[in-house]
Amino acid sequence: MNNNEFFELCINRGFSNIEITIYDNKEYVSEVENEKINFIDIKNNIFYKVKARKENKTVILDSNYLNEDLIDLLEEKIEYIDSNVEDKFLDLLDNNNIIQIKENKDFSKYVDKIINLTKLEEDIFNLTATLSYNISKIQIINDKGVNIENVNSYYDFAIISYGRKDDKVVNAYRTVMQKDFNLNELVILRKEVIEEVKNKFNKNKINSKKYKCLFKQEVIEELLSEIIEAISLKSVNLNLSLFKDRIGEKIFSEKISLVEDPCGESNITRYLFDEEGNKTYKKSIIENGILKLFISNNKESSKNNMISTSNAFDEIGVRNLMLLPGEKSEKEIIKNIKEGLIITDIAGAGGQAIDIVSGSISLLVNGFYIVNGKIDYYFEQAIMTSTIKEIFNNVLEISNTVQYSNEIVRSPSLLIDDIIINS
């Protein structure tokens, strides 16, 4: 069934303001292990989000298809919806933001180029690399003639290294996104993971006390991904955010600024509109430690007589959020640590490990013990007990480099003071 036929059937069944969001993803995927290609494949995934209005109620359903059975489900859902909150629907737009992307016909050529990255060396018994090329499209159409489309294409690369020495088995991994395939950057990642594996062979326990901790980029990004929910207007409306009623107040160190720029031209992926069709724009969410706004979609903003901040991503979320970098390199920062830790991994970030109401944080952490600016030994399975407020207020330094590893949030490494770590 095509879109116009679906619109006509919906209208005949008494629906109005019918809107379809189409998520069309195509992914070329591959895996190479120890200089052998395990697989090269193509994956296609299309699904729909349908929104329509009937009997002064708005109904939304996700589906893998468009047919008359879906309209039956819309009518069933209308029966038990008790909310009459008016939703926003797109009007006819003057221009369609359509971007054409060519499919990658030479993907296997790039897979061949990463084979050498999985060549084994002393103490390394497994090197596995994955490379994918992604074409991601969001299209919004409705019965008023709206037809807008946003397409992104990018490479995802990941490499994991396993090492064995004296019956010790350890691993390390790195990921990166690229707009264009860049082998030199991938060679650097390979060197980093192998170096990290070899540093982990010297393992010991740390003493339980407060440390200066350098949180690696990946760790801060994972923490921020959880904390984003606390700056959502939905969480605020449900009294589930420690930042409720804090707009205009200092919540973090003045060194911390969070800027979201979904449509920035320098981004690998760009979003000209959110999943409700609202035009995106660059915005400061936290500026020099001061909370400037809560992110919202149409529904939550209407409850507060506000305009959406164009953050209808996965209900309410962000794209291309960045913690602005500092001035010193990560190596410079580490060199000046007399005694401290590098936190390379955290575990348990989901669930209640990070509580966005109380702000408490309790996580398992792994990393390296630093003495006089140099790695002394590796530690693992220590327990970090802290708070959101403590981590982002005790900032001593922010590194000057940010690697593009995902499209949600990016951050430099942060040096944080007085963090309790128990072995």
What can you see in these coordinates?
By secondary structure, the chain is α+β, with helices and mostly antiparallel strands. The chain contains 9 helices and 17 strands. The protein has helices at 3-12, 68-80, 107-114, 183-200, 217-227, 233-237, 298-303, 330-335, 388-393; strands at residues 16-33, 36-54, 57-63, 124-142, 147-165, 168-178, 209-215, 258-260, 283-287, 290-291, 321-323, 339-347, 360-371, 374-387, 395-398, 409-410, 414-422. A 6-stranded antiparallel beta sheet has the order 3-2-1-4-5-6. The chain has a 5-stranded mixed beta barrel with strand order 7-12-13-14-17. β9 (283-287) and β10 form a beta hairpin. The longest helix has 18 residues, at 183-200. The protein is globular and about 75 Å long. The N and C termini lie far apart (60 Å).
The radius of gyration computed from the alpha-carbon positions, rounded to a whole number of angstroms, is 24 Å
Number of DSSP strand runs:
17
Number of helices: 9
Mean pLDDT: 92
Strand fraction equals 35-45%
Residue stretches low in confidence (pLDDT < 50, at least 5 long) are none
What fraction, in percent, of the residue positions are helical? 10-25%
Biggest β-sheet: strands ordered side by side in the sheet: 3-2-1-4-5-6
